[in-house]
Design goal:
Helix content is 33%, strand content 32%. It has 3 helices and 3 strands; from the N terminus they run E-H-H-E-E-H. The chain has helices at 14-19, 21-30, 61-70, and strands spanning 2-8, 34-42, 49-57. The chain starts with a strand and ends in an 8-residue tail after the last helix.
Length: 78
């Protein structure tokens, strides 16, 4: 089943996002969850990343929630 996960960064999270970009991409490439689509959410200027949108293919909503909670790069970091 496909689930969309929409995340907004903290207002002061841009530098943390930029500093962790490569590690985040590496993690996304190794997660056991099938990520169908993923990318940044942009601010009104169309350029500044302020969040993320992911579509994952999982068995149920609980699997999607647990996968997001298990990542070290979750919303508590940025």
């Amino acid at each position: 089943m496909l689930y969309a996960i929409y995340c907004l960064d903290r207002s002061d999270g841009l530098q943390t996002r930029l500093d962790n970009y490569e590690a985040h991409r590496t993690y996304l490439g190794s997660t056991p969850v099938n990520i169908v689509l993923a990318g940044p959410v942009a601010a009104a200027d169309g350029e500044t990343p302020i969040g993320s949108l992911m579509v994952v293919d999982v068995q149920d909503q609980e699997e999607a929630i647990q996968d997001r909670k298990s990542t070290r790069l979750n919303s508590s970091h940025w």
